[in-house]
Amino acid sequence: MTTRTVDTTQELAAFLRTRRERLDPDVFGLPSRRRSRRTPGLRREEVAELAGVSVDYIVRLEQARGLRPSAEVVEALARALRLAPDERAYLFDLARQRPRDADKLATVAAPPLARLVADLSPLPVMLMNHRYDILAWNDEMARLLVDFDTLPPPRRNSMWLCFKHPEIRDFSVDRERVMREGIAHLRAAWAAHPDDQALIDLIADFTADDEFARLWAERDVKVKGRGSKVIRHPEAGVLELHFEVLTPLQDQDQRLVIYRAMDEESQSSLDSLFAR
């Protein structure tokens, strides 16, 4: 599998099919059919009826025949398929119905945000862009994860650290969940920035791994602004951490990631780690 050539028409088709096939017909109160269903989920004609479009239109969309649905149709499809908010945003991105400005893609930290990263010590904090490149970090984040100065710039990427770094990739106690969430985030970023070749190349590199390729093919989409994770740190032991992701209004392509201990034991371990 490869993502070197981003074909949003093909991805739109595949996404619509997978979401249609995941729906349970019984929850829609649709008329029962005499013949048994040969495929899972809703039929195309049922989605067409729910969305208020023709069956032929759904067929052409799912066959990637060059249609570009309007914002109104995308909204109707999102409602018909009962998409979650992140999935709805993903669908709008694939249909190229959300505005974007390629000139504003962040590759360096905005100076005020870089200062804020330092000022938030002793909380571990880092600043990332849409492709999860780490643009700035404080000493506590470096102690928690890795000395970023020792990494070449292309490797200062939180997804690369999570999926491919020989040590950090095994930090997470629940690696499967962390991988699924990371891939769901990457897929949303990919749809929002389909012309970002650096992001395309990054994902293509990841998909050479069978485990990543399997999860990527499931087309899960989610963007989490907060959550928790449990890691096994080689020096501090098991740490239960909460994270918060903040997007500055002035620099919406940059994301501030802040970690905090979830309990007193984890806080004590962090204090000891940062004091060394």
TrEMBL record:
SMART domains: HTH_XRE
Entry's Gene Ontology molecular function annotations: DNA binding
Gene3D superfamilies found in the cross-reference section: 3.30.450.180, lambda repressor-like DNA-binding domains (1.10.260.40)
InterPro entries in UniProt: Cro/C1-type_HTH, Lambda_DNA-bd_dom_sf, MLTR_LBD
Source organism, top-level taxon: Bacteria
Domain HTH cro/C1-type: 41-88
Segments passing through the bilayer: none
One Pfam family in the UniProt entry: MLTR_LBD
Protein name: Transcriptional regulator
Species this protein is from: Amycolatopsis thailandensis
